[in-house]
């Protein structure tokens, strides 16, 4: 890192590993998270279903209403009595032709509950203690129904999650290319694999939470929510509450992690809290209501992902070249379908990774189960896809007794093939075309860094010492930065400081720093002079949101577009002041100056703050801030009009949007060396190496942090984390006592990283996304390394020491 990042040595910040501006605030306890807000608000708590599947016969709230300090108790009946909109199903956010049977729940359960944790009633009280006490006094009578738990049961069960969806199939998707059946039949070699990735969930430090403020004087609603999509949450709440969009505002305060679980909107709780604030307030009376999810609620009622059962049928030639890749998988959908089938589509469309088989077919089924809903979790279907493909590559290598890397190289899409068109549709509804990428360059770097050629000797020596070590690799390609658009507003204040806003939200990705780097470069100011505002609809109302590793590509590009517009305007105004043509001017060191001239020298340069003062229609002689900053106002007395060029609008500000033609494809290759204990079967990751390509990098320090964090999450997913339901649909590990997460002690002794750079031509700065990359191949890589260490085939992840031990026993017995 650079010690002093206030001025970049070459005047540019893009590409520099400067420390994250926001960290001082966040790491010293000055963050403002949801629960730091609304100290005077009424507090809500929910009655949640203890059954995985049951009919609601009766809800008796009489005793609960008598608890002192209770202000209101609501059930579905109250929604029904309100407006038709309030009583509607929660929406299906992303429709897709593959969805056969979209089914969604209600803000509060109507007449049936379909997973443990589903909200049935809400109590609003003076504080959480009272609210919880009252919840305990609400008496719900259920008629238990048979639950459908797990993919196998959903596939074969004679009972259904939704009575009108008897086969439990929410969606089916089939696509492919080439004559797969003929290629399979004619292939010199053929293998089948049965694979499984278990259900898991993102575990942000901060759970969900909503705080709503109804302003009875203005009849407006403002709500704060720990979300990844504040603009869409606002639109969803305005629609449901029947309010005009301009009367509703949504703010994502500091958000303590999202990782996908906070994408869906509106949550049932967002609907209920905002509605209750308005209902308990009404015209002339203001009211605030707040709910903060506890950890148990996060486990049993937020969202999960990952669970998939897969079947692969492959045909290949003597070189390991894939002639046919036939992939069928069943995806655990949970009880409802609020977000659509993006996770399943991601698996289906990104399973090919960096490879080009001669023929390909995928059959994907999304199955309803009586469990918590499934929405994207970092990687969103890609870790499962990579598991299927990379386990196949390893199986081919083993079968042919060939080097694992050689088999992969035989199948790589080459730089000269780019842009590579698969003839398929991608999840964004546009053709699946890889824009750029050099997978061979990545694997060459990886081979060197992990000492691939030296490993067999190391392994032999370790074995001689009674140690069991193994190496695994995995490659992936990841569609990032999907559209359709993102916008930004950039304004140079009269102080010369810059305020820049995007509707995109932030959950810890370092956006303040990275976006400021882009704006600072365009406006020739310091990073610390740029304030970035995210996720506040009062500041920027229209956006898509933070997911699919789209922040850098989408909002980064939008900031660039807007800042360039501001820079052009600044040059126009400065041209009049300096009497120089605009084409001779540049923005540098807080000034607009003649190209090559020293900043700060009168006659050839003018401070940006002065340009801002001149361009702003306020009575600048009285603007103390600008007077202090520039000394300018004391000499100027003409208040009649702002001295800006004719035809220009006042204000040194601009709004810019960026809309890409399609997603851009990042990629990477990972390798791991693991050691397994011969006695206890404990699995330790010794080394982990990442070669990553996200095109041009704004801030390598941030990207490395993102990738390393995601690798840690991937190691969690490979060795520790899973959601366990029993056959009754009760979650058996709904607390951190039982749900294992890795500590720093479970991280590899060494985690090394290097980059290849294949810039994207699809956005002005050549970027690709980075936020999910690290987690994508981790399970596949670690499975391969364990397999190499043990000589036992690994087909299901995560894997615990006891499971490995069982596999050893089975293997020894076979
Ligand atoms: N970046 C960069 N150069 C690039 C690409 C990215 O410097 N070529 C920087 C970006 O400026 C940004 C960070 O890397 O600061 C991640 O950028 P990007 O890949 O665009 O991802 P997003 O900003 O869209 O963030 C979303 C992504 C996703 S999808 C998940 S899930 C995730 C992740 O980011 N959740 C996170 N990282 C997370 N990190 C934290 N701390 N918390 C989460 O919840």
UniProtKB/TrEMBL annotation:
A single GO molecular-function term is: carbon-monoxide oxygenase activity
Source domain of life: Bacteria
UniProt key word Cytoplasm: no
Q: Report keywords, A-Z.
A: Molybdenum, Oxidoreductase
Q: Does the keyword Oxidoreductase apply?
A: yes
Report the SUPFAM superfamilies cross-referenced here: CO dehydrogenase molybdoprotein N-domain-like (SSF54665), Molybdenum cofactor-binding domain (SSF56003)
Give the SMART domains listed for this entry.
Ald_Xan_dh_C (SM01008)
Record field: compositional bias (Basic and acidic residues): 1-20
Gene3D superfamilies from the entry? Answer: Aldehyde oxidase/xanthine dehydrogenase, a/b hammerhead (3.90.1170.50), Aldehyde oxidase/xanthine dehydrogenase, molybdopterin binding domain (3.30.365.10)
Q: What is its EC number?
A: 1.2.5.3
Q: Which InterPro entries match?
A: Ald_Oxase/Xan_DH_a/b, Ald_Oxase/Xan_DH_a/b_sf, Ald_Oxase/xanthine_DH-like, AldOxase/xan_DH_MoCoBD1, AldOxase/xan_DH_MoCoBD2, AldOxase/xan_DH_Mopterin-bd_sf
Q: Where is the Aldehyde oxidase/xanthine dehydrogenase a/b hammerhead domain?
A: 28-146
Q: Pfam families this protein is in?
A: Ald_Xan_dh_C (PF01315), MoCoBD_1 (PF02738), MoCoBD_2 (PF20256)
User: What is the name of the protein in this document?
Assistant: Aerobic carbon-monoxide dehydrogenase large subunit
Q: Which gene encodes it?
A: cutA
């Amino acid at each position: 890192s650079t010690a002093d990042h206030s001025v970049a040595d070459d005047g540019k910040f893009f590409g520099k590993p400067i420390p994250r501006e926001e960290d001082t605030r966040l790491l010293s306890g000055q963050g403002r998270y949801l629960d730091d807000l609304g100290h005077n608000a009424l507090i809500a708590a929910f009655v949640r279903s203890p059954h995985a599947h049951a009919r609601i016969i009766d809800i008796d709230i009489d005793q609960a209403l008598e608890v002192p300090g209770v202000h209101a108790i609501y059930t579905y009946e109250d929604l029904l009595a309100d407006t038709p909109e309030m009583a509607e199903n929660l929406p299906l956010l992303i429709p897709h032709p593959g969805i056969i049977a979209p089914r969604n729940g209600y803000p509060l359960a109507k007449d049936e509950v379909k997973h443990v944790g589903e909200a049935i009633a809400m109590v609003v009280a003076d504080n959480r203690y009272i609210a919880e006490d009252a919840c305990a006094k609400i008496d719900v009578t259920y008629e238990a129904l048979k639950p459908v738990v797990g993919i196998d049961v959903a596939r074969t069960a004679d009972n259904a999650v939704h009575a009108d969806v008897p086969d439990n199939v929410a969606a089916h998707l089939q696509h492919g290319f080439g004559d797969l059946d003929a290629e399979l039949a004619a292939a010199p070699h053929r293998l089948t694999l049965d694979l499984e990735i278990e259900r898991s969930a993102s575990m942000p430090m901060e759970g969900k939470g909503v705080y709503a403020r109804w302003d009875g004087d203005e009849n407006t609603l403002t709500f704060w929510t720990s979300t990844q999509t504040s603009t869409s949450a606002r639109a969803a709440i305005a629609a449901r509450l029947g309010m005009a969009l301009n009367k509703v505002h949504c703010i994502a305060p500091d958000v303590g992690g999202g990782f996908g679980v906070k994408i869906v909107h509106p949550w049932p709780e967002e609907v209920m809290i905002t509605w209750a604030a308005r209902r308990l307030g009404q015209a002339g009376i203001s009211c605030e209501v707040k709910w903060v999810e506890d950890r148990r609620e996060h486990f049993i009622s937020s969202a999960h992902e990952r669970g998939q059962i897969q079947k692969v049928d492959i045909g290949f030639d003597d070189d390991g070249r894939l002639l046919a890749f036939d992939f069928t998988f069943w995806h655990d959908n949970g009880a409802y379908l609020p977000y659509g089938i993006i996770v399943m589509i991601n698996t289906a469309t990104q399973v090919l990774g960096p490879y080009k088989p001669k023929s390909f077919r995928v059959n994907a089924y999304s199955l309803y189960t009586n469990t918590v809903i499934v929405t994207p979790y970092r990687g969103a279907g890609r870790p499962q896809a990579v598991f299927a493909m990379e386990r196949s590559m390893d199986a081919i290598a083993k079968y042919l007794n060939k080097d694992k890397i050689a088999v992969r190289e035989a199948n790589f899409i080459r730089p000269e093939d780019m842009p590579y068109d698969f003839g398929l549709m991608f999840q964004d509804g546009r053709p699946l075309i890889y824009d750029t990428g050099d997978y061979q360059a990545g694997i060459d770097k990886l081979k060197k860094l992990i000492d691939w050629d030296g490993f067999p000797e190391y392994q032999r020596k370790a074995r001689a010492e009674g140690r069991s070590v193994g190496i695994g690799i995995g490659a992936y390609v990841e569609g990032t930065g999907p559209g359709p658009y993102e916008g930004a507003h950039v304004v140079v204040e009269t102080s010369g400081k810059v305020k820049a806003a995007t509707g995109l939200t932030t959950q810890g990705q370092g956006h303040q720093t990275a976006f400021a780097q882009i704006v600072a470069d365009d406006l020739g100011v310091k990073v610390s002079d740029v304030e970035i505002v995210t996720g506040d609809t009062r500041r920027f109302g229209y956006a898509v949101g933070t997911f699919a590793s789209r922040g850098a590509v989408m909002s980064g590009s939008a900031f660039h577009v807007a800042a360039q517009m501001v820079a052009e305007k600044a040059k126009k105004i400065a041209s009049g002041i300096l009497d120089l043509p605009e084409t001779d001017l540049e923005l540098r060191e807080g000034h607009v100056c003649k190209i090559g001239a020293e900043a700060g020298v009168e006659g050839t340069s003018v401070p940006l703050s002065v340009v801002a003062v001149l361009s702003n229609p306020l009575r600048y002689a009285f603007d103390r801030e600008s007077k202090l900053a520039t000394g300018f106002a004391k000499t100027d007395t003409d208040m009649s009009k702002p001295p800006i060029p004719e035809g220009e609008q006042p204000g040194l500000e601009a709004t810019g949007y960026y809309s890409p033609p399609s997603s851009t494809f990042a990629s990477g290759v990972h390798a791991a060396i693991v050691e397994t204990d011969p006695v206890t079967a404990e699995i330790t990751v010794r080394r982990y190496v990442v070669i990553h390509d996200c095109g041009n990098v704004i801030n390598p320090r941030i990207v490395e942090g993102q990738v390393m964090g995601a690798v840690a999450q991937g190691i969690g997913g490979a060795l520790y984390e899973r959601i366990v339901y029993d056959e009754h649909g009760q979650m058996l590990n709904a607390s951190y006592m039982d749900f294992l997460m890795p500590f720093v002690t479970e991280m590899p002794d060494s985690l090394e990283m290097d980059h290849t750079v294949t810039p994207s031509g699809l956005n002005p700065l050549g970027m690709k996304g980075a936020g999910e990359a690290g987690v994508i191949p981790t399970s596949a890589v670690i499975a391969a390394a364990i397999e190499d260490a043990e000589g036992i085939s690994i087909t299901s992840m995560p894997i615990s020491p006891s499971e490995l031990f069982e596999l050893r026993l089975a293997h020894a017995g076979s």
